[in-house]
Write a structure and sequence with these properties.
The chain is an alpha+beta fold. It is built from 17 helices and ten strands. It has three domains: 199 residues, 3-hydroxy-3-methylglutaryl-coenzyme A Reductase, Chain A, domain 2 (Alpha-Beta Complex); 109 residues, Alpha-Beta Plaits (2-Layer Sandwich), CATH 3.30.70.420; 46 residues, Helicase, Ruva Protein, domain 3. The structure holds (R)-mevalonate. The site of (R)-mevalonate (MEV) has 9 residues, from helix 10 and helix 14.
Length: 430
């Protein structure tokens, strides 16, 4: 979005897909329908991307509305197959904007590359040699991506670590690991980092006299953090049967459960990633890298923790999230995929760290939606309302028939295709 648009489109969910695109245009989004309707990724491009291609694969491309992030309205494209995810996040974005929306920040676009020295007999010595050669290593690394330097990125530093494999019952191995810090600007950067570490290996072996093992980036991108916070006035959380303050306390309690119990934290975090992965997919990003980094980050104190926090500041419920999010807006699939380009244009994200900040805000909103549902009516009611539509369609209902069949399934709480077929038969006068 370029500035004058609004993400607040009441009744968006009630429209047909074509009407939604029109509503986005009316809201000021400079978009055309074609990229979401045409073939999308062309077969010849897909065939160049990976091996053994026989076709392409589609998923729903939705838009989350109502987001206000750092004072600006944002329409957020999401690619996801799970019902309720987009509805929940849009509802929570609407709720959040009443208390000012999301506030975000990011650290840098620095990715880490690792060079491992294996089976090192004198680790302290190898560490000192590498530290003493810092300038030479940085100078050599700086020559590898001259265009990156021109774009404002490049080498930012190195770190040397002594890492020990000391699993009880097995022989100890000392390793020395050199980290390089590469500012990848708007690229996710995996290829750039891997090129640097591979290129540096002979020099590192020469400096230390040790053998280099693995040379690869680390997905624990803890120099590329994005953070979002939101302040929720509990009065907006009230339901038909519960006061907002009670719901807010239940949400904070649900978060404490996730902090204390990794079994719950895993599910809590899955809900966060429902949002972040959907943005990653829509924007052509490597969601496995993002997942790996996010989960590793959550275990940084030695215990697997939730990705978010929900605590009270006075009367306000305050949510926050901080994650390593390795997003790119250039390179890889992004360049060749027309739907990805359209999604990035709709979101108005040109900078990788802008995209990362939107993604964590979405993850935080998604988490609020899940916790609010779990703390009140439970997750199944909303989920089954959406699921009923899929069941109705599976039973053969037309687009016009789906809402009535779905309503009948919800009323009886019977979501079987057989029952949907019966309802459909009755509807058609059978
Ligand atoms: C389902 O996809 C995600 C949830 O399980 C997340 C959560 O439990 O917090 C609802």
């Amino acid at each position: 979005m370029s500035g004058n648009e609004t993400s607040r489109i009441p009744g968006f969910y009630k429209l047909s897909p074509d009407e939604r695109v029109k509503a986005l245009q009316d809201a000021g989004a400079d978009i055309a329908l074609a990229p979401w309707r045409d073939e999308g990724l062309r077969l010849q491009d897909a065939d160049l991307m990976v091996e053994n291609v026989i076709g392409t694969f589609s998923l729903p491309n939705a838009v989350a509305v109502n987001f206000c992030i750092d004072g600006a309205d944002r329409l957020v494209p999401m690619v996801v197959e799970e019902p309720s995810v987009v509805a929940a996040v849009s509802n929570m974005a609407r709720l959040a904007r009443r208390s000012g929306g999301f506030v975000t920040e990011s650290s840098s676009d620095i990715m880490i590359g690792q060079l491992q020295l294996t089976n090192v007999q004198a680790p302290a010595e190898a560490v000192s040699k590498l530290e003493a050669a810092r300038d030479e290593l940085l100078a050599q690394a700086a020559t590898i991506h001259p265009r990156l330097v021109a774009r404002g990125g490049g080498m930012r530093g190195i770190d040397v670590r002594h890492v020990v494999y000391d699993e009880p019952g097995y022989p100890r191995e000392d390793m020395v690991v050199l980290h390089i810090h590469l500012d990848c600007v708007d690229a996710m950067g995996a290829n750039m980092v891997n090129t640097v570490v591979e290129h540096l290996a002979p020099l590192v072996e020469g400096i230390t006299g040790e053998q280099v093992g693995l040379k690869i980036l680390s997905n624990l991108a803890d120099k590329r953090l994005a953070k979002a916070t939101v302040r929720i006035d509990p009065k907006y959380l009230s339901t038909a049967t519960l006061k907002g303050t009670e719901v807010a306390e239940r949400i904070a309690s649900a978060w404490r459960f996730a902090w204390a119990d990794p079994y719950r934290a895993a599910t809590h975090n899955k809900g966060v990633m429902n949002g972040i992965d959907a943005v990653a997919l829509a924007t052509g990003n490597d969601w496995r890298a993002i997942e790996a980094g996010a989960h590793a980050w959550c275990a940084r104190d030695g215990h697997y923790r939730p990705m978010t926090t929900w605590r009270f500041d006075g009367d306000m419920l305050v949510g926050s999230i901080e994650l390593p999010v390795q997003f790119g807006t250039v390179g890889g699939t992004i360049r060749v995929h027309p739907t990805v380009q359209a999604n990035l244009a709709l979101l108005g994200a040109e900078k990788a760290n802008d995209l990362a900040r939107v993604a964590v805000a979405v993850g935080l909103a998604q988490n609020l939606g899940a916790l609010k549902a779990l703390a009140t009516e439970g997750i199944q009611a909303g989920h089954m309302r959406m699921h009923a539509r899929t069941v109705a369609a599976t039973a053969g209902a037309t687009t016009a028939e789906v809402p009535r069949v779905a309503m009948a399934l919800c009323a009886k709480r019977d979501y079987s295709v057989a029952y949907a077929e019966r309802v459909l038969g009755e509807l058609r006068g059978g």
